[in-house]
Structures are given as structure tokens and as C-alpha cells.
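Progress against Task 2.4 (sequence-to-structure conversion) is shown through the following example record, which the project officer requested during the mid-term review.
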Amino acid sequence: MKHMELYDGASARSMAPAPGNTNNGYQPLRPPRLTNNQAMVYDALLSLGRSAKAYELLEILRPQGVNTAPTIYRALTDLTRKNLVRPVHSTRTFTARPISKPFTKHSILMICEACGHVDTIENPALQYALEDNANSAGFTPRDKVVEIMTLCREETCPSANPGL
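C-alpha cells generated for the chain above:
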């Protein structure tokens, strides 16, 4: 069985507090345990700075020895469970968030149609209002996914800078 590593490559043993150091109960933010494949997929998505399709990630990671789509999909599934990656249903892509800002069940995705940049806003009140409206109409929401197609104002976005 392959040894599991933390995202930064440190083993779980090296992340444990020193003996006798209780740190006054403070627990620093620690990355979830990621396999090598999960870490590679997560790094690739973060470095792109936009959403990407699984096959695009496969092409990016092929030089690092990732040769099959199921490897990418397994990593994406596990990263989604850890709230580090989220599928963008309207574009059939995936997007990543830094470990310090994981997705929540209230995350609303803002997707730029021009460059693929994805950002989130957190608005529990809006999510609850949508759920209440669905219930009033006789539906029971099973999953709440809100995606808003936009044009962003990023400096590198073609929509913000038509000359790019």
C-alpha cells in the first residue's frame, strides 16, 4: 500500500506537535491528507487559476507520469469530497480553492464565460431562500448548486481587455 502524504509532502509524523507542546489548545490549519496523484491534480488546478476539464489536467500531468483519465477522475472525486475541488456543472470543468478557503455548501460559483476564471461568494441566506422556494413549490432539494455565468474583470481576461 502506498504511503499517504500530506499536501505539502510532509508526513503525518512530521506535522505532529513536539512532545509536551500542547500549543495552548490551538490547532493550526492543516492540509488534508492527499495522495501523490491528488496533490498533483490539486496543484495543477490551482496553478491554472481557472477551471479545467479532466482531460486537460491529464495532458498537463502526463509528463509527471499520469497516463489515464480514471486516475484524474479518482483524484478529482476525492478532492471534491475534501471540499478542495468543485465541479462546475455548466462548463463540465473543475475548479480548486486554496486549503485556507475550502468550498462550503453555501458557495455560489461565479464563472467567467470568456476566460474560465471561477470565484465564489458565500451567501447562506440566498441558499436558504432557494431551498424554501423549492419546498414551497413541492420539491425537496437534494443538492444546491448555484452557478452564475459572468464576465470577470481580471486583468488577463479577454472580456476585460479586448486587445488581449
